[in-house]
Structure formats: C-alpha cells, structure tokens
Amino acid sequence: MNSLKKYKTTCCYCGVGCGIVVTDTGNGRIHVEGDKEHPVNRGMLCSKGMNLHYTVNDKTDRLLYPQMRMNRSMPMQQTSWDEALERTAAVFKTFIAKYGPDSVGFYVSGQCLTEEYYLWNKLMKGFIGSNNIDTNSRLCMSSAVVAYKLSLGEDAVPVCYDDIEASDCILVEGANPAWCHPILWRRVEAHRAANPDLKIITVDPRRTQTATSSDLHLQINPGTDVTLNHAIARVLIERNWIDNDFIANHTDGFEELSAKVFERTLEESALICGVSVDDIQKAAYWIAQAKGFLSMWTMGLNQSVIGVNKNLSLINLSLITGKIGKPGNGPFSLTGQPNAMGGREVGGLANMLASHRDILNPEHRAEMENFWGGTKISDKMGLTATEMFKGLESGKLKAIWIACTNPMVSLPDARMAEAAMKNARFVVVQDISSRTDTIKFADVVLPAAAWTEKEGTMTNAERRVSYLHKIGEAPGETLADAEIICRFAEKMGWGAHFNYKNFGEIYQEYTRTTEGTNIDVTGVSYNLLKQNTVQWPYPAKDRNAKGTARLFEDHQFYTANKRAKIHGVPDANESESTNNNFPLILLTGRIRDQWHTMTKTGRVNKLKQHIPMPFLEIHPHDAQERGIENEAIVEIKGKRGSVKVKAKLTDEVKPGNVFLPMHWGRVLGNDFGRANNLTNNLVDPKSKEPDFKYSAVEVVKY
Ligand code: SF4
After folding, report:
1. Best of 9, 11, 452, 607 to mutate for ligand 1, by most ligand atoms within 8 A of CB?
2. Which domains are delineated in the chain?
3. What pLDDT, in 10s, does the model give residues 605-650?
4. Atom nearest to 47 CA in ligand 1
5. Could you tell me the sign of the dihedral formed by the alpha carbons of 157, 161, 166, 171, in that order?
6. What is the ipTM of this complex?
7. What is the pTM for the complete model shown?
8. How many CB atoms sit inside 10 A of residue 414's CB?
9. What is the pLDDT of residues 93-122, one digit of tens each?
10. Residues 6 or more apart whose Cβ sits within 8 Å of residue 85
11. Does the CB atom of residue 653 touch ligand 1 within 6 A?
C-alpha cells in the first residue's frame, strides 16, 4: 500500500476548494482522502468530496470517442478527432463568412480549468472576433461580480477563510452553507464551539440547516433582502453604530444610502419582510458590537432579478460600519462552482477580457489585441447565457459549442431552452458523460478528459489558486479540453497562436496578461503551485511573499479615487407577480449530496441515499387548502410549464412559498421534478443573472 503513488489535488465540486490526496490504485482507479495539510479543509471532506473516487472509478457512462451525425434524425456515428474537428471548423467558417462572427458562440462552465477557460476566451474574442462566450457561472455569481465592481472597484473577494475564526458575528444571507459549502460551515461550527459568544444570523425564506443552527433566523419573504438590509442599515445609522471616520475618509455615497433607508419606518420594513422589528434591531446590534463582522451569501442574493441591488445593500453594512480590510471582517461572496473565480480571472464572461479587463474599454481591448496578435476584438458585448439561447431560438445565433455543462437541465425556462436547441443550426457538445440531457441535441459530440485525467489550475472562493495533477490516463480517445481547443484552433487556421508545448505554457501566457493589474499573478507558476496553493494578487516582485490573504487592509479600494462606493439602491422586487391562478412563490435550491444536474453525483449510490427523489416542500396550511397529503404526487403548474413531484409537508417554508430542488432533469424519463419547467427568463439588468428563486406557481393534487 505504501508504494502506491499519492497526489495532492483539489476537489472539483464546489468553490470551497478543499485539498484532496488522491491515491492512484492502478487500472485507472483511485482512492481519495482529505489533505490534512491543506489550509482550507485541514483534512475534512464533505459527502460529495469523500465519494469523488466513485465518479472517477465508474466509467460506465463515459464518452470515449468523437461522434457526429449529418442531421438530427440520424443516429450518432463514431468518427475520428480529425473528422469531427474539421467538420466543426468548416461549419463555423461557413457561418462566420456568411453571417459574421456573432453567428457562433461558446457556452462553457465554472468547472473548466483556468487554462481551458483562457483558451476558449482567446479563441472567441481574440481570433473569431466575437465576444459570444459565456458560462454557467453567469447563472451563479455574476450579480456578486457586478456588485463588487460597483462597490469596491474590482471583482475581488476581500476576505479569506481565516476570517471565519477571527469573526464575532457572521451574517449568512441567501445561502445554506451547511449543505452547499459544508466544509466552510464546519469551520464556522468549530469556531462557535470554541467561542460560544459568536453570533450567527441567517437570512433565508426557508428554515434550512444553516438557519436552524444560527442564533437568529430572519425568515424573510422572498425578494425582500434589500428592504431588510436597508432596515438594518437604518438602525445602525440611527443609533450611530457606524464608523464615521471610515465613511468620511474611505467611502462615497453615504448620504444617498442614508436618504434611502429613512424612506421606510422599521415597522413598515418589518411588515414587508415578514420579520419582527425586534429581530431587525437585534441583528443590527450584533453587527455593531462585533469586532469581526463577516457576511456570506450565494444564490439567494445572486439569482435574482434584483441580484446586484441585493448584493450592494448587503455590502453597504460592511462599509458603513468600517468592518472591512481587518481580520474577521468583510463581505464574502461564496462561489458555487470550483473555478468560477478562475474563469473570471481570464475573462470568462461575455463582457470581460483577460485579467478582469472590460470589453467596453478601448484601452483594454487594445492591450489584449496586441498581446494575442489575432483579430480586432469586437467592441460589442457578447451574448450572455440566456441571451445565447434566445439567439438560437430567434435564429440570430447559428452555432453553439457547449462544454462541461448541461444547460438543458440548468437553464431557466427549460421549454424555451429546448426550443432554442431544436432551432440551432449546429450544436457541439463537449463533455465527459453520456448522461447529459444536452447531448441529444448535438450534431457533434467530443469526449473530454475528467478530473485527475488532465492538469491545470483552479481558483477557489478566497482567491486561492491551486494546481490539479494529472493522475491517470484518460480512457478511450478522450482528450483534455485544452488540447481539444488547440486542435480546433489549428483547424480554423490559427494553429501558430495555439501551439503550446505543455499546459504550463498556457498558464504562463495567462499570468503575463495579469502584470500590473489588481489580480497580478506573475509570480505564480506550476512549480510554485506544486508546492503550495497561493492567494492572489501574487506579483513576481513578491516572489518571496506568501500571496495576499486579505484585501484592502490599507483601505485603499480599487475605484478611481480609491474610495469604496456605498449605494442607496431601490428595494422594489421586480420578479414576476403571483396572481389568482398562480398564487404561490416557487423557490429553488440545492440539496446536500447532489451537485448541479447530477451527471456525476447522481451515479453514486451513497449520495443518492440522502434524498433519492425530488420533492416539493409545501406548508401544511397551503397543502390542507388544496387537499394535499404528505408524500402525495402533486402537479406544480406555472406560466411556462408544469412538474410532477412528491409533496413534503413542512413548516420549513412559510405559507405562500414552496421549494423544489434544482438538480433533477429528465433522468426519470419524464418531467418528474424538473424545476426549470417552472422558472422564468427574467434577468437582473446589470448582471444578466436569472431570477431562479422567484416564480409564480399553483400546486394541485395529481
Ligand atoms: Fe468538495 Fe466543496 Fe465538499 Fe470541499 S466542501 S469536499 S470543495 S464539495
């Protein structure tokens, strides 16, 4: 056993970024355990991480060779890499010549490695000449990205996990880390066990496990986060529990916020939010008293038609109290996917370029044009995730290449997404698994290497960059995604610009684009990362330093005038309205042991045991009114479709709200539990993130 080779790597599921020791047990099989020396998880793994080896060892659903068909009524046929990529290149060239570069698009994933993300962006923006590349991270944290830029001047998470242990008050809003970021939550629990005075406040319309283990649960009505955050800000301002010096010296916009929060009385806000005035005051008091005040959030704030405003109103609480840039303090957006942050670093959204440059900034475009030496970078924003599928539906977008994601389950308004894919003239699906619902729409299928079968880097939620080893050979004819992109670029005629000796060269090219930026990683290399993970920025001149755990310790923010911006945003929710036909608000979310659309975790028996089937949480009052009993099959009807599922009667949701997990697609052969039959296509106007967590529905006995 001792002779078996061990490798240190990083979990490929969530943005916590736990260290994993992988033992290569031979024949393509592995065993995993937590890395006791890793600064994030200190040896701990959650149920998903602990069972990762099953998804690698079980290759029954793996795509093993390229496939294609000449039309969708024909079955897929095995083909060679050359044929598959030559045909794809020919189709892309034809569309580009006939309809222009904006007729094609790439839709990628927060699970791609940084190198892959970099190449996708370079190819689309720097050579094809369109900005039509977006990612499923748009569905996840783009509201937080916009809010960080508007308030701090940069998409830069200012805190680190070690701030958990330095905090006295943690405010969790629109997140259930006990289930969705479990190892981070175990650190919170351990911190509380050692410090019983720690106050945990959870803001969530559901009584989740996180809420249950908190000192205060503000069970707000869906969509009222801004009103609540404003009410807390009002108490802080009224009682002078704010940091006047910090506000005067390091921020702009306080007057705007102050005017806004006094537009409502506390009583009025409490009524809108469905919580008590006392609880709002208690939350404000705990925040004010804390030497370390940490806020954490995820999809409850981000996946909203007012997601940016929700984020800004929460970040305000850190800024008006001056609780940022100090140990234990700051606003912490918890990334959902393992490499959503790495993707943003290299420009992985339709509005960005490498190293957080902006598409709309002519200097930024010129810098990258010179660096890449390809074509002129378009000054037009690319299509975002939902816009791409609308583009396919309308015929504006002709061809789409989907890599490492399963939009037929994960996009809102599944019927529209399906209509879009049916209307697409050409679809390439690049994946590891034959289980994705998206594959049935493909014209070309490209088999990709999986975690442990390729090398590269990822960045977790605290800006920690880690190196992932290639541990075993990829099965069949599968290739690493980066290699597939380079081979395609060569078929398109740009091979000289995508000719790398190894993956380390791709990473080094990316690091050069960061020089002098706020996310400078010119000091980072594969060699360094093979020894240690590091947090950016990490410029070459700091080669002997250990990276940057916490930002803004000098209170110099990344805005033009170095001052953070406080925003007094409107508090109205813009979601679709309930009415007599659809009187209930549908919330969607994750369960503990499943990941995204279950193409990996859905194969692991141990993980299925936790919650094997989709369910609808409905309050007993609402159930009784409709004659629905616990475990009965119900039909959830919405404006865009319907879903059948088993009812779970519980007071964990308030009357008027129902909850459905987001993981299930058509795995059961029908629409059983497919949440996105019901969700809508509304997006936040600034972040373009969909409003997944607020749809009007009715529930009836089936
Ligand atoms: Fe993996 Fe996230 Fe679990 Fe850590 S918390 S083991 S990163 S899924």
Report:
1. 11
2. 5-57 (3.30.200.210), 67-139+338-460+471-499 (3.40.50.740), 142-334 (3.40.228.10), 584-701 (2.40.40.20)
3. 888 889 888 999 999 999 999 999 999 999 999 999 999 999 999 9
4. 3
5. positive
6. 0.99
7. 0.96
8. 25
9. 999 999 999 999 999 999 999 999 999 999
10. 484, 487, 488, 491
11. no
